[in-house]
Sequence to fold (389 residues):
Amino acid sequence: MLPLASARLIQSELQALRRDLHAHPETAFEEKRTAGVVAARLEAWGIETHRGLADTGVVGVIRGAGSGEAIGLRADMDALPIAEANEFAHRSTVAGRMHGCGHDGHTAMLLGAARVLADGRDFDGTVYLIFQPAEEGTGGARVMIEQGLFERFPMHAVFGMHNWPGLPVGEFAVHAGAVMAGTDRFRIRIEGVGGHAAMPHLGADPVLAGAALVQAVQSVVARALDPLEAAVVSITCFHAGDTFNVLPGTAELAGTLRAFSPAVREKALTRLRELCAGIGAAFGVDIAFELQPGGYPPTINVASEAAWCVQAAAAVVGEDAVHTAEHPSMGAEDFAFHLQKRPGAYIWIGNGASAALHHPRYDFNDDILALGTAYWVELARRRLAREHA
Ligand code: NI
Fold:
């Protein structure tokens, strides 16, 4: 039976599972119930199941007929700290928690693939099903890797998938090279001299220096980088002062830098540090620039593996519905950590005209559950086909 036909047979089961996960969202490293649901399903289908990697991570192992290569298929499981604004029956039952990025759907699609692949085991090699915690900002991928993901489950290639609102249902997008940006988080502390707001000449105003700095950082992309290279700098916090008539002594800023190449990142960081020093000198304040932990590297698809993704998606929806033109996003994705360790590729599956990712009215589109499940099965069977191995 074709993978899409097999996936359609379990559509109602996958939808019930997806909606159950949606109603019970859990955020980074707290995915205990979710991990329990995942592990119980895998075990019920006779799949070797390993729990506890990065606390709530689960890895399923499906061995095929021969001793060919091994690949990893990865789904993220975590929800977001967002209050859901939807009112449908499967809305979140947890205050301030919501599956606002569709990881409920990602988990359900990989479970669907597990079920179909375990039924036939008609491939040559091993499929590792990686159910990963904490994709949203806290780097669950990095923790799984530190705890031995690729040593315990040796694989030749690793693949990821994310739904994409605005891309029509029945379409996929994947291309070689950079698909998501690398991110850095930074904090800027401005040390001035506070005093009476009526006598600014007796102090050194960190608010004015900060305002100048906020403006100046926009010159980094506009004037320090090659216009054909992509990068973005955003100042996202500016905290200073408490009242009307006192100039504060300090100001704290924070922000993010995103870029696709290490050279562009380095150039931008150098320029940011230079601006802090220069504006500090010009305004008579001390400005300290500090990178924070928690950045993500860029997500870079390997061409040969992306080609397998194109082939698998085309087998499900037809060649014309698979977009292969370069169209990277400035968002970031901790799948990048997996791609630093193994070759692989990351694909987008159309979620149709839904609300945007991380929007309080977002919902994963159940109409794509079978398509995503079939894609995973096609990818595994093709990548691990006997003639290929
Ligand atoms: Ni996401």
Observations:
- The mean pLDDT is 95.
- The first helix runs from residue 3 to 9.
- The radius of gyration is 24 Å.
- The pocket of nickel (II) ion is lined by residues 101, 103, 135, 162 (CB under 6 Å).
